[in-house]
Amino acid sequence: MSKKDLKIAVIGGGSSYTPELIEGFIKRYEELPVRDIYLMDIEEGKEKLEIVGGLAKRMVEKAGIGINIHLTLDRREAIKDADFVVTQFRVGGIDARIRDEKIPLKYDVIGQETTGPGGFAKAQRTIPVILDICRDIEELAPNAWLINFTNPSGVITETVLKHTNVKAIGLCNVPIGMVYGIAEILGVDPKRVNIDFAGLNHLVWGTHIYLDGEDVTEKLIDSFAGAKSLSMKNIPEFPWDPEFIKSLGMYPCPYHRYYYLTDKMLDEQKKEAATVGTRGEVVKKVEQELFELYKDPNLNIKPPQLEKRGGAHYSDAACSLISSIYNDKKDIHVVNVRNNGTIADLPDDVVIETNAIIDRNGAHPINIGHVPAKIRGLMQAVKAYEELTIEAGVKGNYYTALQALTIHPLVPSATVAKKILDDILEQNKEYLPQYK
Amino acid sequence: MSKKDLKIAVIGGGSSYTPELIEGFIKRYEELPVRDIYLMDIEEGKEKLEIVGGLAKRMVEKAGIGINIHLTLDRREAIKDADFVVTQFRVGGIDARIRDEKIPLKYDVIGQETTGPGGFAKAQRTIPVILDICRDIEELAPNAWLINFTNPSGVITETVLKHTNVKAIGLCNVPIGMVYGIAEILGVDPKRVNIDFAGLNHLVWGTHIYLDGEDVTEKLIDSFAGAKSLSMKNIPEFPWDPEFIKSLGMYPCPYHRYYYLTDKMLDEQKKEAATVGTRGEVVKKVEQELFELYKDPNLNIKPPQLEKRGGAHYSDAACSLISSIYNDKKDIHVVNVRNNGTIADLPDDVVIETNAIIDRNGAHPINIGHVPAKIRGLMQAVKAYEELTIEAGVKGNYYTALQALTIHPLVPSATVAKKILDDILEQNKEYLPQYK
Amino acid sequence: MSKKDLKIAVIGGGSSYTPELIEGFIKRYEELPVRDIYLMDIEEGKEKLEIVGGLAKRMVEKAGIGINIHLTLDRREAIKDADFVVTQFRVGGIDARIRDEKIPLKYDVIGQETTGPGGFAKAQRTIPVILDICRDIEELAPNAWLINFTNPSGVITETVLKHTNVKAIGLCNVPIGMVYGIAEILGVDPKRVNIDFAGLNHLVWGTHIYLDGEDVTEKLIDSFAGAKSLSMKNIPEFPWDPEFIKSLGMYPCPYHRYYYLTDKMLDEQKKEAATVGTRGEVVKKVEQELFELYKDPNLNIKPPQLEKRGGAHYSDAACSLISSIYNDKKDIHVVNVRNNGTIADLPDDVVIETNAIIDRNGAHPINIGHVPAKIRGLMQAVKAYEELTIEAGVKGNYYTALQALTIHPLVPSATVAKKILDDILEQNKEYLPQYK
Amino acid sequence: MSKKDLKIAVIGGGSSYTPELIEGFIKRYEELPVRDIYLMDIEEGKEKLEIVGGLAKRMVEKAGIGINIHLTLDRREAIKDADFVVTQFRVGGIDARIRDEKIPLKYDVIGQETTGPGGFAKAQRTIPVILDICRDIEELAPNAWLINFTNPSGVITETVLKHTNVKAIGLCNVPIGMVYGIAEILGVDPKRVNIDFAGLNHLVWGTHIYLDGEDVTEKLIDSFAGAKSLSMKNIPEFPWDPEFIKSLGMYPCPYHRYYYLTDKMLDEQKKEAATVGTRGEVVKKVEQELFELYKDPNLNIKPPQLEKRGGAHYSDAACSLISSIYNDKKDIHVVNVRNNGTIADLPDDVVIETNAIIDRNGAHPINIGHVPAKIRGLMQAVKAYEELTIEAGVKGNYYTALQALTIHPLVPSATVAKKILDDILEQNKEYLPQYK
Question: pTM of the entire structure?
Answer without folding.
Answer: 0.96
